[in-house]
Description:
By secondary structure, the protein is α+β, with helices and mostly antiparallel strands.
Amino acid sequence: MREFIILILVAAVLFVIPCGMLEARGYYVKERVTLALKKSPADSSPAAGYASSDDYLEVRDQSGNWVKVVTPKGVEGWASLSYLTNESPRSLIIEQLNAKIASQNDSVRMFQESNKALEKENRELKYKLSNSALEIQKSKNAFNKLKEASSDYLNLEQSYNKLAEAEKLKAGQLEELLKENRELKLSERIKFTLIGGGFIILGLVLGFAINLLKGKSRQTGYRL
């Protein structure tokens, strides 16, 4: 699939997209040509050097169908325009496309590596999120238990308060009963004291009366 895409791109560049024209700036040596550069603009002139296929030749001068050029290696000479072209050679285009494809492949690899790193980070985040969810659930359970315990505690506290109030009320009632009991005992003691005193007084009175009667009878000669 990748090779098919590459072929389509090469065909589009070679046959659809026209190359820019070079205005007397430079030419490429045509394909499959080893070009002899002449010392003068004539076929009979001796060679000053050679240029290989697809070399870019910088133009320095022109004379009719001849141009004075300089090769990438610095060799200077005259070349016929029939062996030159201003269109980018296919090999250069393919090289540029290969460079772009290599760059794209590098980008794809970088994206893949980045994607792997993101997937790893995503897995770690999911794991942490899962642990966080468990911790949250544990916290919720603990909170619910504490809430239930607090509710039970409140109920117990209310029951205790009610019992404390009842005990307090009973203690008050008991204190009242004890007070009444003490008062009753005191009144009984007073009553018994008064009764006892009455009996003592009555006994003294009776004794006094009896002694008095005995005295009278002795005076009259009667005995009782």
